[in-house]
Specification:
seven-stranded antiparallel beta sheet, alpha+beta, 3 helices, 7 strands, Alpha-D-Glucose-1,6-Bisphosphate, Chain A, domain 4, about 150 residues
Length: about 150
């Protein structure tokens, strides 16, 4: 089984505008569908409530790892941690990296989530499949958000 999800999208907008949608916690929340409690800070836990229909009862928790302006934003989290009865804290989290690149058309956003090989075997395949589909959708969400933003 694969251990890394990679998705990308090209957005006809300047890197600065795409970066703002990615790093501003309220804008990130608008397209990612999570209401975050505060800004992203390296080394700090970012958390809030998921606003995606059907998942509103879940908390979103991630630890910010790296912020390189207009280039890289990364965090770790527990993929597809949707059972409120399960304590996922003992699991090794996956690493999510958003990389921005200037292109002729504007900006390429590439998201990579790695470390699925460390997810417990009992939920590994489902977590990989759900997040692979999820990142496909999120790439469209950020594109639509940026292109619709003023």
């Amino acid at each position: 089984m694969e251990s890394t999800v990679e998705k990308q999208v090209e957005i006809a907008a300047p890197v600065a505008k795409v970066w703002d949608a990615l790093i501003d916690h309220e804008k990130f929340g608008a397209w990612f569908r999570v209401k975050l409690e505060g800004p992203f800070e390296v080394g700090k836990v970012a958390q809030g409530h998921i606003t995606w229909p059907g998942y509103e009862n879940l908390r979103w928790v991630a630890t910010v790892k790296e912020i390189v302006p207009e280039k890289l934003f990364s965090f770790t989290w527990h993929p597809y941690a949707i059972d409120p009865e399960v304590d996922y804290s003992g699991e090794t989290p996956t690493l999510v990296e958003f990389r921005l690149e200037v292109t002729e058309a504007g900006t390429r956003v590439k998201v990579t989530e790695s470390g699925f090989d460390k997810v417990p075997e009992a939920r590994r395949a489902m977590a990989f499949r759900m997040n692979s589909n999820g990142w496909e959708q999120q790439m469209q969400n950020i594109k639509e958000y940026v292109l619709g933003a003023k």
